[in-house]
Write a structure and sequence with these properties.
about 250 residues, alpha/beta, Rossmann fold, six-stranded parallel sheet, 10 helices, 6 strands, about 15% strand
């Protein structure tokens, strides 16, 4: 059996990231009320029960509860796209996420600071990449996932090599990126919370070394490499080669 891990257009994302300078990032932060001082953690997901959004918020709540120094210092931004809202289970999930965000903001927020900033707007590519660049830490906490291209998009956007990827060991991307990401079990809120703090506290040199290797891995297995691999295997199959494909 052979798997074909899907890639992203790493070069195009990096070019867009380079064009989104500090001024545009600050404009984006002002638009959505994201502090320009302190640290930013980010989640970008469809509103789907497989993405582990409530579990992520619980881990952040544990962090703010047990390490009060991060209150006012760490802001979490959740970009959520509505998914299958006509289905009752998905409506229930949306209500659960809304309730968790409200609870955390009421519990720890101040007149000057909301711990969780939620973005429901449609974001074009440049704005989304700007959000990736703005984030010090990317949280990917899938309970199960085929690949999770958001993790790869975030890595490709880190043209300064200074971000940290916190990645669920249940995401398909973990097979490729787990070695240099900060791995988490999304069901363990204490361990997840500790991993977030470890990512935020990681020395600059280690951040750059890890992200450089992650970017190299994402570039080496980008969407063009994926297409070439798939088409090459199809050609060999047609030529009668003894290859079994697991799509």
């Amino acid at each position: 059996m052979r798997a074909f891990p899907l890639g992203v257009d790493a070069d195009a994302i990096a070019q867009t990231a380079t064009s989104v300078g500090e001024q545009r990032q600050h404009e984006l932060a002002r638009r959505y009320g994201i502090p320009t001082e302190g640290r930013v953690a980010l989640g970008v997901d469809r509103l789907d029960y497989t993405k582990g959004i409530p579990e992520r918020i619980e881990a952040l709540e544990h962090l703010w509860e047990t390490r009060p120094a991060w209150r006012g210092e760490l802001t979490y931004v959740q970009k959520a796209d509505e998914s299958r809202s006509v289905i009752p289970n998905y409506r229930d999930l949306q209500e659960r996420v809304d309730a968790a965000i409200t609870r955390v903001n009421e519990r720890f927020g101040t007149p000057e600071w909301d711990p969780v900033v939620r973005i429901d707007d449609y974001l074009d590519e440049a704005t989304l990449v700007g959000l990736y660049r703005l984030a010090d830490v990317m949280l990917v906490s899938a309970l199960r996932d085929g690949m999770n291209l958001v993790a790869k998009e975030y890595v490709a956007a880190q043209v300064d090599d200074d971000g940290v990827l916190v990645l669920s060991d249940q995401a398909g991307a973990h097979d490729q990126l787990g070695g240099d990401a900060v791995s988490i079990n999304p069901h363990n809120d204490v361990g997840f919370s500790n991993a977030i703090e470890a990512a935020l506290s990681m020395p600059a040199g280690e951040r750059r070394e890890r992200m450089t290797r992650l970017r190299d891995a994402v570039s080496a297995e980008d969407v063009e490499a994926w297409m070439s691999d798939v088409l090459g295997t199809v050609a060999r199959l047609r030529a009668g080669a003894d290859v079994v494909v697991d799509g």
